[in-house]
Amino acid sequence: MSRKPDYGFTDSDLSRIIEMAWEDRTPFEAIASGWSLSEPEVITLMRQSLKPASFRLWRKRVSGRKSKHLQLRHPGIERGYCSSQYKLRSRK
């Protein structure tokens, strides 16, 4: 039995959705705009994609977290990621 839900996503898309769901600063609304998944659908996807203990950790982490919901965020926070998260490293 496959643990992955069948939303028609590629493995790469599914991996990115899970990564975004784990990120503290990425609101559920950002996932909804990128992949048309509501918060309950993200929860279902996470439940089916993660091991049970990992899912419980994630739910405990995001439950009630203000940064995961745009309407609960401080108005001064306009980005969905840490300012240093996506800086390119110089090659030597």
Automatic annotation (TrEMBL):
Top-rank lineage group of the source organism: Bacteria
Pfam family, one: DUF2805
InterPro entries documented for this protein: CHP03643
NCBIfam families linked to this entry: TIGR03643 family protein (TIGR03643)
Record's protein name: TIGR03643 family protein
Source organism: Oceanospirillum sediminis
